[in-house]
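Tokens as discussed.
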């Protein structure tokens, strides 16, 4: 028995989970129609602007945070400096969005996803930073997808 896994087994699985989280159902862990992009397409700017409670962030802040997190990890995976990262800024700054701002935010998320997808499909050396980075992006985004979907139970009453 060997202590390593074949790269193609890892990449095939991580690409499927990554893609399912954002856009295409593969039957790994989401129900059909519940990916992040499919979920966000059901949310109006008004709904994205309303926090679930006085102590919760708006859905627009959740999406902004996911983009920010992905971009920080993207830089790390590309061995680019991030400088000082302020994880709290978005939660304090992002609240209400107009319809145009909401559309722009969703488009920015899609562009970030597509850029990272292109990058990971080109990786030849899956070192610790790249493996950890893509796993963290999937897990973190899945967490926020769950937060968003739970918030919709209240926001879409």
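Sequence:
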């Amino acid at each position: 028995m060997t202590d390593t896994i074949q790269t193609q087994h890892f990449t095939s699985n991580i690409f499927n989970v990554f893609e399912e989280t954002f856009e295409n159902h593969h039957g790994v862990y989401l129900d059909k129609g519940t990916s992040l992009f499919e979920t966000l397409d059901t949310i109006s700017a008004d709904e994205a602007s309303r926090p679930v409670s006085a102590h919760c962030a708006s859905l627009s802040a959740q999406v902004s945070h996911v983009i920010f997190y992905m971009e920080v990890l993207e830089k790390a995976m590309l061995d680019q400096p991030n400088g000082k990262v302020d994880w709290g800024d978005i939660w304090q700054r992002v609240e209400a969005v107009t319809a145009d701002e909401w559309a722009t935010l969703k488009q920015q998320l899609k562009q970030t996803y597509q850029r990272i997808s292109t990058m990971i499909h080109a990786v030849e050396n899956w070192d610790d930073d790249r493996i950890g980075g893509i796993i963290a992006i999937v897990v973190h985004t899945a967490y926020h997808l769950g937060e968003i979907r739970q918030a919709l139970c209240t926001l879409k009453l």
